[in-house]
Fold these 2 entries.
Entry 1:
Amino acid sequence: MTGRAEVERHKRMIDATFERVDLISGDAELLSDFARYLSVLVSGFLEKAVVELIFEYVRRHSHPTVQQHIEQKLRKFTNAKVQKLLDLVGSFDADWRTDLEAYLVDEFKDAVNGIVDIRNNVAHGGSTGVTIVRVKNYYVTIKQVVNHIAEFCAPEP
C-alpha cells in the first residue's frame, strides 16, 4: 500500500469514528470521553500520515539500503509539533521547510500544536476540558496540513 493510500485508509477510519460520535446526544461525559479518544487518534494520524508520505518519497527516490535506514529512523517520529515537522521535512529539502513554515501559521500552527498538547495531556492522565467540536476543527485543519505536505512529498502522478 502506498503512503497516500495508507493516509486515506487512516483518514476514513477517523472520519467513521467522528460519524459515530455525531449519533450521540445528551451524554456530556460520553462526548468528553470521545473527545479525548479522538484527540489521540487525530494526533496519531498527523504523525503516521507525515511518516507515510515521507516513506513514499523515499521509496520513489532512494536505494533500498537508504530506504531501510530512513524507515528505521522515522519509526521513532512522535509528538509532531510544528517545529518537529519543520525539522523533519527540512532534513529532506530546505525548500520544503520554507514552504511548510510559510503554510503553518495561525490556525494551522494552533491545530498541530494543540492536538499534540491535548494528546500528551490525555496520555499522562491530565484533565483536558477538550470538546468534540475543538477536536473536529483541529482534525479538519490537520487534514489540510497533511494534504499540503503530500503535495511536495508524494505528489499525485
Note: The mean pLDDT is 92.
Entry 2:
Amino acid sequence: MEQQRLAAHNLARGQQRWHLRILQETPTQAGYTFEPSGNGRVFNNSFVFSAASLATAVNVGGNTAPSTFMFSNNNWWASDNASLSAPTLPTTETDGVSGTGTDYAGVDDDPHVNSGGAICGGPELGGGIRIPDVDGTITGICRSAPQTTIGPAAPESCNI
C-alpha cells in the first residue's frame, strides 16, 4: 500500500490565495516516471480566511491525483463573510464544518507554543476525529490519547 501523507490539527489563517496546493513539480527525471501526487489526508484542520482574497480552496496542478485525497472534520470559516465559507474540494469531505469558527484571538504566530486556551470554548473543541498516528504536538509534547480537536492541539487544561 502506498504511503499516505497527512496534514492534521493545523491552523491556517489570514488572507491566503488558497488553502492547499496539490502539485507534482517533477513528473519525470533521469528516465523515471513518478507516480502522480496523491493519497493525502487532510483531517482536523481549522481554516480561518478572508473570502475576498481566496482564489480557490485547493489549487490543483497537472500530473496529480486529487481524487485520491481524503478530507475529514475540517473547519472552514470566512471571517469576512461566513456565507462564503464552504470550500470546493476535489473530493467530498466527511463531517466538515463551515460558516462558524474561532477567531483565535490571543494566539501568537505559533499556536503550538502559546495557545492561550483560545480553542477550549470554540466550536472546534471535540469536533474532530481521533487520528491514532498523531500522538503529540509539533513541539514534542506527547499526548496520552489522540486529540479530537479541530485545529491546533488543545491545551491539557481543556480536559478532552
Note: The two ends are 33 Å apart (CA to CA).
